[in-house]
């Protein structure tokens, strides 16, 4: 199966052909996928080199002229390194862009901590008005990329990962999808962690919601689910643990509830290893998730 990032250049190349407002801005990474698109649209495929602050600044400049810029590089270089430009050049100036990242939290451990970004979504949460998509499958990545580009002049972040679920689902760029129904609590599985969560909760009497758009947070879906399954909620996110805890608490502010946020830990893992070893070390493997979820929700099983 191809990866989410494999879908990036084909989808954006088609959008460049279809919409004269679309521009793609790169910082060296990923340029090989746009060779043909650059030939066809030399004025709308721009490589600024390894200059990530300029990447965002150039995108904001294009947006000020009425273009719909799509910016791409690794998450740590797209959100963390040029954060001031994201905050000011886009947010302060009131213009939008589509930021599409790669490498997720720890997809390339050999790159070291400079190429890891478990805090990217939490960092964007400090800013107003961002939509955040976290696809869990290449098909969903293609769909959400198109949603992002078509979203007027909004500020949108699309978080791509090498980790993937086995099959794509009919995502719509907004709602959480109910995947399993139960009566002893709600588990929200974000993006590529759905399959692992389904394995971890097999036989447990819990509702599982699938989230591929986490900002805005689908408070209505969580409220509906907790009305049926009880107001204990576990969030399983492929980035910094607890990133969406406040959003879940806000959604349930008027009812007694408990929230457990699971995700990537704050401690830096200084050995490269493999991505699967990082997953296990952060407690995001199926066995550990089952222990933590059943321990929090009481371990009830389906009849």
UniProtKB/TrEMBL annotation:
Pathway: Metabolic intermediate biosynthesis; 1-deoxy-D-xylulose 5-phosphate biosynthesis; 1-deoxy-D-xylulose 5-phosphate from D-glyceraldehyde 3-phosphate and pyruvate: step 1/1. Pfam families: Transket_pyr (PF02779). Its EC number is 2.2.1.7. Gene3D superfamilies: 3.40.50.920, 3.40.50.970. Its cofactor is Mg(2+). It comes from the Bacteria. InterPro entries: Dxylulose-5-P_synthase (IPR005477), THDP-binding (IPR029061), Transketo_C/PFOR_II (IPR009014), Transketolase-like_Pyr-bd (IPR005475). SMART domains: Transket_pyr. The keyword Magnesium applies. Keywords: Isoprene biosynthesis, Magnesium, Metal-binding, Thiamine biosynthesis, Thiamine pyrophosphate, Transferase. Residues 2-167 form the Transketolase-like pyrimidine-binding domain. Belongs to the transketolase family. DXPS subfamily. Homodimer. This is 1-deoxy-D-xylulose-5-phosphate synthase. It comes from Streptomyces similanensis.
């Amino acid at each position: 199966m191809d990866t989410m990032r494999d879908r990036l250049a084909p989808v954006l190349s088609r959008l460049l052909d279809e919409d004269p407002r679309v521009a793609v801005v790169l910082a060296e990474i990923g340029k090989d996928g746009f060779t043909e698109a650059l030939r066809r649209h030399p004025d709308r495929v721009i490589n600024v080199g390894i200059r990530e602050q300029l990447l965002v600044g150039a995108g904001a400049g294009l947006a000020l002229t009425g273009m719909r810029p799509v910016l791409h590089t690794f998450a740590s270089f797209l959100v963390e390194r040029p954060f001031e430009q994201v905050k000011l050049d886009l947010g302060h100036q009131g213009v939008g862009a589509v930021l599409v990242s790669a490498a997720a939290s720890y997809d390339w451990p050999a790159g070291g901590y400079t190429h890891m970004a478990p805090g990217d979504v939490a960092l964007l949460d400090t800013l107003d008005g961002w939509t955040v998509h976290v696809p869990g499958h290449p098909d969903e990545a293609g769909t959400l990329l198109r949603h992002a580009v078509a979203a007027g002049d909004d500020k949108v972040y699309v978080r791509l990962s090498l980790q993937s679920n086995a099959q794509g689902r009919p995502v719509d760029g907004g709602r959480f999808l109910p995947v399993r129904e139960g009566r002893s609590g709600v588990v929200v599985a974000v993006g590529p962690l759905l399959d692992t969560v389904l394995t971890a909760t097999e036989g447990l009497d819990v509702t599982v919601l699938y989230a591929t758009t986490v900002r805005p947070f689908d408070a209505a879906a969580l409220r509906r689910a907790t009305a049926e399954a009880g107001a204990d909620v576990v969030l399983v996110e492929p980035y910094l643990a607890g990133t969406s805890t406040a959003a879940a608490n806000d959604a349930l502010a008027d009812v007694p509830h408990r929230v457990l946020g699971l995700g990537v830990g704050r401690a830096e893992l200084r050995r490269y290893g493999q991505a699967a070893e990082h997953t296990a070390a952060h407690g995001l493997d199926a066995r550990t998730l089952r222990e933590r979820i059943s321990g929090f929700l009481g371990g009830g099983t389906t009849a």
